[in-house]
Structures are given as structure tokens and as C-alpha cells.
Amino acid sequence: MSTPSSSRISVLAFGAFGVGTSGYIVAGLLPALTGELHVSATAAAQLVTAFAIAYAVGSPLFAAVTGTWERRTLLVAALAVTAAGNLFAALAPGYGTLLLARVVTAIGAAVFTPAASAVAAQLTSPDRRGRAIALVFGGLTVALIFGVPLGSLISQHLGYRTAFALVAAFSLASALAVRMALPSVAAPPRVTLAERFAAGRDPRVLVMLAVTVLGCLAAFMVYTFVSPLLAATAGLHGTAVTVLLFCYGVGGAVGNFAGGRAADRWGSRAPLLVVTAAITVVMALLPIATATPIAAGVALFVWGMATWSFSPPVQHRLIELAPGHAGLVLSLNASAIYLGVGLSGVVGGAVLTSGGPLVLPEVAAALTLAALVLVGTAWGRVRAPREEVAVG
């Protein structure tokens, strides 16, 4: 199949923006959620955990169940479910139903993100694959730049329900855009469930999934509780935190595209070593580096840039290891991402309760150091010949 125009892949990024905002928005809504629902910050953070666990379980499961669906139809359906979940969240009468709404939203996101990444990789030449994946993930970073801060701002004035309703509307618009702009993409031939999960038993794939879990756990245990962290280090609240979330998101966008280009130019391992080392240093210094508003802005920009340089080389490596099962390994990686995110609410909440917000970045630095050791010592070689990338 011929390489699509960048505008077609941009439509996938458009959808990823809606999905990403759906997943990350709780960090920006945390003060509004605690105030309107009358729950603690730790309890509100479990909305992140509910989303993440549903995503982690649902991604490989639904990748198998929908393996023979035409890809455009699958992407549209996934965005429609995401929209429905956000609308449910906007209308949910209480905390329990809001948790359920987050599960529904996660199912749509769990299907969309790995499928969109696999389609972008399948429609792109190997020498531009890292950039294509980075473009899709660019939608997630734009969600951090605009979606989360805007949600935070809206929640301060109109409540968290309005923020969820707007995300629902955008997700529905994304579904329509994908249906209109993306060409039909055939599903791969039917394979058994055992065949689908064979690639996941490769020790080299398992190493990369472990690296993903550690990296995402570290990043999101701090990001989810960034409001209490900035309150403790620089006395910042409200609009100031919104501005700093914007700085993080801009850094994330820069890092995402830099990570994709680096993977195309130098392969996966060297960029991943550099990025993971950088994240470790930034995390360790974060309590000191966020002592003033200006310093905090710079620190969050660098933190976002380092963190979001992480995913493109990881996904590039996974496709390199299992090009014939790209959809599967990317769905497993999506599960690993959200397993880390889900654990972040639990681990971060425990650290926040026992040690306070200043301890969060130090624990995160220890986790990324463990990921760095894994990348450095347990990489493994690619022994299989290159295959055509499969979207299922």
C-alpha cells in the first residue's frame, strides 16, 4: 500500500488527542474532583487507577477480539466508545458511577491507541516508522499541552462535569474525522489467540514491557499529584498550576517528536538509554528545581520533554522485534503503559500519605534507574529476519 499523506496520519493524531485528554485529564481536574465529590486527593486519583487497569486488561483482550475488523471501522468504534464514556462521566451522579464511566472510557482508548499506532506503522516506510508513530503519539502530547490545562481551567470555573462533556464532544468529532479522512485498511488474516500471544512470550519483548511499566509508573505517580507537589515546593495553586501543566505539555510535544526522529536515525537502544538517564536525573532534582515559579516552568518543560521522548524508541524496538505482530505487541505495550499508570495512583497515593509530596520524585527516580539498568543489561539481539508490519 502506498504511503499516505501526512494529513491522513494527522487524523489519527487528532483521535489520539481525544483519547489522551480522556486518560490524562484527571490530573488537571483533581482539585475540582476533591471539592465537588467531597473525597480526598488519594481517592480522586483512583479514577486514574480505574481507567488504567481497565485499559491494561482491555488492550490485548480487545486486540484479539477485534483482530479481523477492518481498521477504519475499528478506530471509529473505539472513538465512539470513548465519547460515550466521557459523556457518562459528565452525567454520573456520584463517585461510584464516575469510576464506572472511567472504565467505559478506557475500553475505547485501549482499542484506539495501539490500533492507530499499528496502522500508522503499516502505512509508512520503515525509515520513517519512528516519526509516524511519534506523530500519532503527538496527539497524546498535545492533550497534555492543551487538553489537560484547558480541562483544569474549565473545571475551576464551570466544574469537572463540563470538562468531561467537552472531551466527549471532541472524541465524537474525532470519530467523524477518522471516518471521512482515513482510507479503508484491511484487517490481517485471522489467527488463533495462542498465535497472537506467542510474540508476547519473547524475553526481549518482556524486557521492553517491564521498562514501559517502570517508566510510566515513575512518570505518572508524580504527574497525577503534581498539584500538591507544586503547592509544597513553590506554594502554587489554581491558574499557576494550569500554566505549569502547559509547560510540561509543550516539553512533551518536543520530546515526542525528538524521540521518533532519534529512533529512526540511531535505532532504539541509544536514544532509550539517554532518555531514561535524563528522566532519572530530572526526577531526582524536581523538588529542588521547582522551588520558584520560573524554575518550576523550566523544570516541568524539561521533565515533559524527557518523559515523552521515551515512548517512540520503545515502540520502534517492539515493532523491530515482532514486525509480523505489530498490533499485538503495541497493544501489550499499551497495557504496560496503563499498568504503570494504574499503579501510579496506588503507589503515589501511598507515598503521598506516608512521606508527603516531596518524596514522590525521589521514589520515581529510583524506578527509572531500575528501567535504565534493564535497558543497559537485558537488551538482547534481533535474530529474526525483517517482515512486513502487520496491523493486527
Automatic annotation (TrEMBL):
CDD domains in the cross-refs: MFS_NepI_like (cd17324)
InterPro entries per the UniProt record, alphabetical: MFS, MFS_dom, MFS_Efflux_Transporters, MFS_trans_sf
SUPFAM superfamilies: MFS general substrate transporter (SSF103473)
Transmembrane segments: 12-33, 39-62, 74-93, 99-120, 132-154, 160-182, 203-226, 238-258, 270-288, 294-314, 326-352, 358-379
Segments forming domain Major facilitator superfamily (MFS) profile: 8-388
GO cellular component terms, semicolon-separated: plasma membrane
Recorded topology in the membrane: Multi-pass membrane protein
Superkingdom of origin organism: Bacteria
Subcellular location: Cell membrane
Signal peptide (residue range): none
Keyword entries, A-Z: Cell membrane, Membrane, Transmembrane, Transmembrane helix
Pfam families: MFS_1
PANTHER family: PURINE EFFLUX PUMP PBUE (PTHR43124:SF10)
Descriptive protein name: MFS transporter
